[in-house]
Known about the structure:
By secondary structure, the chain is of the alpha+beta class. It has three domains: 2-44, no CATH class; 53-158, Uridine Diphospho-n-acetylenolpyruvylglucosamine Reductase, domain 3, CATH 3.30.465.10; 161-247, CO dehydrogenase flavoprotein, C-terminal domain (Enolase-like, domain 1, 2-Layer Sandwich), CATH 3.30.390. Helix content is 29%, strand content 30%. The chain contains nine helices and twelve strands. A five-stranded antiparallel beta sheet has the order 4-5-8-6-7. Strand 9 (161-169) and strand 10 (176-185) form a beta hairpin. Helix 8 (213-221) packs antiparallel against helix 9. The longest helix is centred in the C-terminal third of the chain and has 17 residues, at 231-247. It is globular. The mean pLDDT is 96. Flavin-adenine dinucleotide (FAD) is lined by residues 24-32, 45, 64, 89, 93, 96-98, 100-102, 104-107, 147, 151-152. Residues 24-32, 45, 64, 89, 93, 96-98, 100-102, 104-107, 147, 151-152 line the site of flavin-adenine dinucleotide (FAD).
Amino acid sequence: MITAYHRPQTLDEALTLLTRPNVLPLGGGTLLSKPTAESIEVADLQALGLDTVKKNGNTLELGAALTLQSLLESEHCPPALKSALKLEAPLNIRNSATLAGTLIACDGRSTFASVLLALDAKLTVTSKQNGEETLNIGDLLPLREQVRGKLITKIVIPLTVKLAFDYVSRTPADKPIVCAALAQWNSGRTRLALGGYGKSPILAMDGTEAEGIESAVKNAFHEANDEWASAEYRMDAAATLVKRCLAS
Ligand SMILES: Cc1cc2nc3c(=O)[nH]c(=O)nc-3n(C[C@H](O)[C@H](O)[C@H](O)COP(=O)(O)OP(=O)(O)OC[C@H]3O[C@@H](n4cnc5c(N)ncnc54)[C@H](O)[C@@H]3O)c2cc1C
């Protein structure tokens, strides 16, 4: 239950509030506003100007409080990321939910987090104690509880990569049973992220070329059994999705 609402006007004010153990950042509030047994206070981020999209050379700098829909509508958003954003949540939620709130709250079925993992997104995490730190998304996802007391302020993704995304789901607009996001740099570096299972998307491969990608898929999903699908199904489906990504 939210017991107090704060609207800090500066980043410093927000970080000071977050030094208190029961204060959490409020992004879109789509998850935080759900009733819980825990008493929390929230620091609303909307006055901090963290909702910008800025192309900076070969990268795109995204404010952490940008909504999913604003990113989807940005002219700079890569088409494959747009497809993933459309699947992340329906329009009404996309209009409120923020990028950072989504990354903190998501599970392995998150298409947005899967694409950001393939892109090796860098996050700026700020706190009173440690100042500004840069985290790779692959380091953040398994340790999200450690972000408590800190604020994600910025997310940076590369623009000069080839990016492909594909998925299998029960209906076209449903969360994926399996999704694959493939990013390839000019150098040949290839990153494959697989989603649709578990607590967060899995980085199946980060190599200097696409060689060995099929065995990477099998290794990543060999225990991926749940109520939606067997590991065998996921391994087969992911192998097909990866072929499609490579072909596109
Ligand atoms: C009815 C309903 C049910 C849902 N159920 C689920 C569910 O069960 N599982 C799920 O994964 N998603 C669920 N969602 C989706 C959830 O709304 C999304 O994950 C959403 O994208 C969260 O974004 P937000 O900006 O609204 O986050 P908020 O609700 O504002 O915050 C979510 C978490 O992120 C933290 N946070 C927000 N911004 C920052 C920041 N800048 N830095 C650090 N931490 C931050 C908050 O403190 C909080 O812990 C549900 C949505 C709805 C409407």
